[in-house]
Amino acid sequence: MNNTLDKNMQTDSSSQTEQEFLSFVLGEEQYALDIMAVKEIRGYEPVTKIANAPPFIKGVLNLRGDIVPIVDLRIKFNVGEASYDEFTIVIMLNVCNRIVGIVVDAVSDVIKLSSDDIKPPPEFGVAFDTKFLHGLAEVQDSMVIIVNIESLISSDSLALFDSSNQEG
Amino acid sequence: MSIDIEQFHQVFFDESEEHLDTMEQLLMEIDLESPDTESLNSIFRAAHSIKGGSGIFGFDGLGGLTHVMENLLDKARNGQQVLTAEIINQLLSTTDLLKNILNDYRSGQPINQKEIDQAINLLEETIDADSASSELEVNNDGFGFFDSPTTSGQHTEAFGFFDGTDSAKETNDSAGFGFFDAEEKAEPVKDNGFGFFDTETVKPAPSEDAGFGFFDEPTDTAKTPRQPSPQQKVDTNNKQARSASTPAATQVKKPTTVENKSIRVDTAKVDLLVNLIGELVITQSMLNVLGNSETPLAKDKLEQGLLELERNTRELQEAVMSMRMLPISFVFNRFPRLVRDLADKLGKKVELKIEGGNTEIDKGLIEKLVDPLTHLVRNSIDHGIEMPDTRTANEKSESGVITLAASQRGGNIVISIIDDGAGLNKSKILDKARQNNIPVSDNISDEEVWQLIFAPGFSTAEEVTDISGRGVGMDVVRRNIESIGGRISIESTPGLGTNFNISVPLTLAIVDGMCVASGDQVFVVPLVAIIESIQPSQEQLRIISNEPLLWVRDKYWPILNLSKRMDIDGAIQSPTEAIIILIESSKKRFGLMVDRLLGQQQVVIKSLEQHYKRVPGAAGATIMGDGHVAIILDVESLADDVSTEATEKKHE
Q1: B623 vs A51: CB contact, 8 Å cut-off?
Q2: Mutate which: B279, B607, B613, vs A, most A CBs within 10 A
Q3: Contacts B628 to A, Cβ<8 Å
Q4: How does residue A102 score in pLDDT terms, banded at 50, 70 and 90?
Q5: Do A60 and B621 touch (CB under 8 A)?
Q6: What residue ranges do the domains of chain B occupy?
Q7: Could you tell me how many CB contacts below 8 A there are between chain A and chain B?
Q8: pLDDT in tens, B259-283
Q9: A127 touching chain B per CB within 8 A
Q10: Which of A100, B80, B118, B151 is the one with CA 20 to 30 A from B467?
């Protein structure tokens, strides 16, 4: 499941079609994720805290009847400042048959990239573990970090799912 | 036109399972002295439907066995075969085997052909043994299917079922739909077409129902799916059938079918409806908030509308919930067989009484009740009911009585398993408890003694049988029941019997809750667990090893601070300023300290696990009137967090 995106990339490279990514800001850095994983984008609103959850799990939210966990990637990856104002954005993701919201500083753009544009990441220098990365891309003279969002959300380090029912 | 036949497999499996259940149930009820023709017919029809379906789908293992079974049943209902207890047993074990085969097909496992052949041989022996004398009158009054002599022995995989039947000598057989049976006899065959073909008035109708189980209602005129010119062919049959008609045919001419009036609804669809209703309930409570804060002018109307909405919501909710409800007889009906088999095995005489089988309960709960109930019934037979001679020695009737009763009490279903056996042995349990190093005081109450049997590894059976005695059961029983929000209690009188009472909520989707605030967060406490809520005075508080303890209702209550447990800032920390909710879980009683009570409300339970994971201390979540999420507390798991130190001290 985690490598669906990889497979997409491979087929893309053969046919040279472009894939769309949603770019967003965490602290000073530009990130992007596969736009097909995005369910919706909304403003941050107060959440219901979950007892004894790690600090990066802000709590749960009512998304039209579904109880959805909200993760603050800024806390998790120690980038930027975890402040919440009217500009704070939550990206609702639909991955692994679950809905998860991630808190980011801003959403910037939809970018089109072909697989040739995506370069392998260096082993260091980004807050993300490289296994959660697809690579890096140059967009308008600045670097965008392409995140493999499925592997990140389903990773043990976020511990969002019970290990027993990852597929659930 | 090609049809993907596999899409019907699931339906066939479900239906066959139902048929097998019906068969088993009816077989159990048969009175050997004067078997009821109607129930024999129903059994026959069930076997026949399975055979028909397995023919279509090529499940030969099922088809072959049901075919032989059908022959035996057919003779039985025609009075050619005297039913004996052995035959009933044989038929019952055949249904068991059929269930296994069905499961094998369902799960795609290879079937055990050897076992099937064995069963077929056994059945055939039974048939032969009894029918040697009556060999010449092989009446096959199935539902208008025609048996072919072995001389032709040809199976055509045809869909129609009246092909070429000009004379009985000719081939007219099809294994396709299973409507035509290849009979291993060479005599001319009499066909008593279940009344279809006896009279001129019966007109075969073209296909009305090309699905499965064509013959559930044999009183219908013949249904002939995909049959070219059915009229013509059936006409020839009519002649033949008429000439061959016998009294047996008229006897079964108009059987009334025992009909299952239920419909099969995909649970996913029902769940969707349940969710939608949940939304409606939320909208209603949202409007409620609005209504309470508006200007007085608009308020009147708003209130009126809200009242209406509330009524509608409730009705709709009830209607939708009822779709998920099934009579508890779904569980109870499997017990006659179990009781019978077990009693036989143990050499005991046991009579099973079922009361309140119509009580309805959530489908999800039914599935979860099967195991605990089975266990309790087995226990009652094995441990509760005494051997016949012991019973007579104690001036009791020779056969023991086990009563399964269900009734609705408020929002709960109460299920009782009552036996009139020896009752629980208090001293034995206490001895066993001491052996297992479970601390027991000397003046322990009966109620507390009985609760001991739910401890893991606890069994007072002197020897371990394959029925019970390993002691792994009762703790699982209690855990299963608690997992569906239920409780189990025991009443027992030595010499008179034991009564297990299980109380489970009607449904799992909605719960009556008390909304409480702690800091800025709102929680819901299930109302069933709450005894009362108090604001304690200083005099009621005690301190033991720095833990506050509440003295109320002549008992000590350890206090669990919800804000500490749930990691909430800004909550009241002094017990005298806070509210203590007295909670009774199945394990412990304790006081839950919260800031204030917000009011009682029905809440829709939402899953936290769907998008997140299980949260310790939370039974789920719900959405409040303002759209916020509130956690529903799980009192059982909160009870685990109550300092055991304090709990132990409360006994002192």
Answers
A1: no
A2: B613
A3: 46, 48, 62
A4: very high
A5: yes
A6: 1-135, 138-255, 281-324, 327-505, 510-650
A7: 76
A8: 445 566 667 777 777 777 777 777 7
A9: no
A10: B118
Half-sphere exposure at residue A18, Cβ-oriented, CA atoms within 13 angstroms? 7
User: Could B628 and A60 be called an inter-chain contact, meaning their C-beta atoms sit closer than 8 Å?
Assistant: no
Residue B577 has pLDDT above 80, yes or no: yes
DSSP code per residue over B553-596: TTEEEEEEEHHHHTT-SS----TTTSEEEEEE-SS-EEEEEESE
* ipTM exceeds 0.85: no
Contact B384, B422 (CB under 8 A): yes
**Closest-CA residue of chain A to B625:** A62
- Testing the interface with B: which of A39, A42, A50 to mutate, by most B Cβ within 10 A? A50
Contact: B629, A50; criterion CB under 8 Å: no
The predicted structure's pLDDT at residue B423: 83
Q: Which of A20-24, A82-86, A139-143 has the highest mean predicted lDDT (pLDDT)?
A: A20-24
Please give the CATH topology (third level) of the domain spanning A4-154: OB fold (Dihydrolipoamide Acetyltransferase, E2P) (2.40.50)
- pLDDT above 50: residue B318: yes
Cα–Cα separations (whole angstroms), residue B77 to B18, B38, B186, B192: 21, 9, 22, 13
CATH superfamily, with its number, for domain B1-135: HPT domain (1.20.120.160)
What is the residue-wise DSSP string for A76-109?
HTT-S-----TT-EEEEEEETTEEEEEEESEEEE
User: How would residue B161 be classed by pLDDT, with cut points 50, 70 and 90?
Assistant: very low
pLDDT at B198: 38
User: How much is the pTM?
Assistant: 0.52
Mean pLDDT score of chain B, rounded to an integer?
Answer: 72
Kindly report the CATH class assigned to B327-505.
alpha beta
For residue B322, the SS3 value is: helix
Spatial separation of the C-alpha atoms in residues A38 and A41, rounded to whole Å = 8
Mean pLDDT value of segment A108-117: 87
CA distance B566 to chain A (A): 4
Same fold, B327-505 and B510-650: no
